[in-house]
Amino acid sequence: MNFCSDNVTAVAPEIMAALATANDGMAMPYGDDPLSQSLDKKFSELFETAVTIFPVATGSAANALALSAITPPFGAVYCHTQSHINVDECGAPEFYTGGAKLVTVPGNQAKIQATHLASVLEKSGAGIVHHVQPAAVSLSQATESGTVYSIHETAEVCRIARTHNLIVHMDGARFANAVVNLGCTPAEATWRAGVDVLSFGATKNGAMAAEAVVFFNPALAKTFHYHRKRGGHLWSKMRFLSAQLDAYITDNLWLQHAAHANRMAIKLAEGLADLPGATLRYPVEANELFVALHPEIAENLLADGFQFYRWNHDTIRLVTAFNTKEEEVIAFVQAAQRYACPALIS
């Protein structure tokens, strides 16, 4: 009954089976194995355009290394105040870019609004030697509040970025959950809307440790081999990263897993929506819920063995995953309902 994160899960059986198959026999190192060599073609089919893909082991590496390839040391990366690259990566983007500055942009529901971005960029000091120079915009999809950019919202941000000659990066740690929510193709959610490079997440959705940096603009990928090697993410036994990514997108496994996680999140939200002493902080559009919950309810739920993070003094975060059981969701809601009225009376 652990709703702390989608990182708490076991590895999906399909991914584990793919790893076992990849473990048979010898294979050339550093991405020269057949599985790794086939990923560009397979991901190009998935995204309906020619892409260049680089497997890495962690989401932080995917984000930081992607930004290092598109941002000079004197550059600025515009991101939301709550974005993972700004709050949760221990300065990795600044480190790997050699000193680029993260410039935060506020916005409701952890989204960058195009109008806010335009206003910030107009005052950015482009061309002035005393200022960091605008280089990139980074969007989180889904966001740190569990919300999802619509295709139109993404396109509008990309349009503003293009006006100012910025490259657009998308942090897609929960990209699968966003695509399921949007009901669109991966292409429509990315390059067709104007995204240049995507951090394609798999670990939160059933992989053991596998992410990918996907370049939709081949020119941006020319030096990425060196960034990845210098950053320590050129795995010698790359086949074990590639096997995970290959299995992940085969037969739409990634979308099936995300669809289940999203359904469980919606079921949780529906169960808590009318609960006395509980308020949903944001729309539930992916697999995360932020719930303002009476402290006594939260304490009793923790005592019952349910696990979740306290996000701040009055809000908890609940995250569902590809293998969240429906009975666990029902049990959580029923327990919260039992404790709701006494908590309010006290």
TrEMBL record:
One of its GO terms (molecular function) is threonine aldolase activity. Keywords: Lyase, Pyridoxal phosphate. It is an enzyme of class 4 (lyase). One of its GO terms (biological process) is L-threonine catabolic process. Catalyzes the cleavage of L-allo-threonine and L-threonine to glycine and acetaldehyde. Belongs to the threonine aldolase family. This is L-threonine aldolase. The lineage of its organism: Bacteria, Bacillati, Cyanobacteriota, Cyanophyceae, Synechococcales.
